[in-house]
Specification:
396 residues, alpha/beta, Rossmann fold, globular
Length: 396
């Protein structure tokens, strides 16, 4: 069995998951390659493009409006690498925008009759432009995209959402052996209302390293001078309404005096906006440091307005910390009645109320949180699901 994985880079959640799968394949003696369009490479990872070229293609797509249909030179190099390795199966992760020309690569995969497993980390594959369509709410993808309300995010001059949608539809539906994987049941439901509704689609939740993210002793409370205050932890994934920035600012005002909102990932220019009621910490990629923060927290809050299956929820659970989130996308699927709660999107008062409830229950539910993470979301479980799928597809 020879497997090639495609992703934009080795970084980010999809990049991490790609590396986890590659390591699992190495252990089982499966030949595999990771092909990325930018960033650092190592071992069996090869870059077929560069950050400079990706930026040039980004500029071209914003001028032309053809988001996902540029990158011709990168596509040619990618096809050459695929020819050299001759894979039995190609696993696609996040490769939209400026990584390759969607038409060119999918036509190649069709002509070579290579089975494809495509993991949808967002909704881009079946829309004209957007990765999510919750804000503003839009269901045009269920018929045909057009008159896109957010096209200006992707194209400076004109709306090509209809054209892009139809080109994607032709490219992706033309592959006979295409299997779609979604990390959440919510995303699977979205796929079943799209032009890909007739393609096989299964749910495999994302995985995390539960040997890294686990309950641990920490001096976070002492370092932050929090005394006996309850710690409400949140991540500033982006400073945007979509990820709940405004909601977190409101939450800080509503929490009782004996509660402290600690927000990780706040850029320097946003610290003043965060205000005095929030402890704003910078972004960190140190997983040990993150595990200590999760472990010190009494509750983890994720007020995301649009999401597929947030990894941060899984990391908090693995560290024994309950999760409170909005009932949006696949975010609430990470928890059950023993490990957290969800409230309607935009209900900041409800977010505050449930944060207090679960912060008080932290000690009683730590074992349940940890157990759920290990049983359902450990990297070994994640990898075995994927490798079993590959074997099944190739056996057929």
């Amino acid at each position: 069995m020879r497997i090639v994985q495609l992703n934009s880079s080795l970084s980010g959640s999809p990049g991490m998951l790609m590396k986890v799968l590659s390591q699992a394949m190495d252990k089982q003696g499966i030949e595999n390659r990771m092909l990325v369009s930018k960033g650092s490479t190592s071992g069996n990872c090869i870059a077929y493009s560069s950050l400079k070229e990706v930026k040039c293609n980004a500029l071209l797509s914003r001028v032309s409006g053809n988001y996902g249909f540029t990158s011709d030179h990168a596509s040619a190099r990618l096809m050459k690498l695929l020819d050299e390795f001759h894979p039995d199966l190609v696993q696609i992760h996040t490769v939209h925008g400026h990584d390759f020309n969607t038409e060119t690569i999918f036509r190649y995969l069709k002509e070579q009759n290579i089975p494809v497993v495509y993991t949808f980390h967002d909704c881009w594959a079946f829309t004209g432009y957007c990765t999510h369509y919750a804000n503003p709410a839009c269901s045009a993808y269920q018929t045909v995209c057009g008159n896109c309300p957010v096209y200006h995010r992707y194209s400076w001059f004109s709306d090509h959402s209809r054209e892009n949608f139809l080109r994607k539809k032709e490219a992706m539906t033309g592959i006979e052996h295409l299997t779609i994987v979604t990390p959440s049941a919510w995303m699977k439901d979205q796929v079943k209302t799209s032009f890909l509704k007739d393609k096989p689609c299964i749910v495999i939740p994302n995985g995390i390293r539960t040997d890294v993210f686990q309950p641990c002793n920490t001096d976070v409370r002492k370092r932050l001078n929090l005394g006996e205050k309850h710690i409400v932890l949140a991540m500033a994934l982006t400073i945007s309404k979509a990820k709940g920035w405004d909601d977190l600012l409101q939450l800080a005002e509503l929490l009782p005096e004996d509660y402290q909102l600690v927000l990780v990932g706040v850029p320097e220019q946003a610290k003043e906006q965060a205000g005095k009621k929030i402890i704003a910490l910078p972004r960190t990629a140190d997983q040990k440091e993150l595990a200590e923060l999760y472990s010190a927290a009494d509750v983890f809050v994720n007020p995301t307005h649009e999401d597929n299956f947030p990894t941060v929820n899984l990391e908090a659970l693995a560290c024994g910390t309950p999760v409170v989130t909005y009932a949006t996308g696949g975010s609430p699927e990470a928890i059950d009645p023993e490990t957290g709660a969800s409230v309607p999107i935009g209900d900041v008062a409800g977010l505050c109320r449930e944060s207090e409830v679960w912060a008080e229950k932290k000690r009683q539910c730590t074992d349940a949180c940890r157990r759920r993470a290990v049983m359902l979301y450990d990297c070994s479980v994640f990898s075995e699901h994927y490798l079993s799928l590959y074997r099944k597809i190739l056996a057929q």
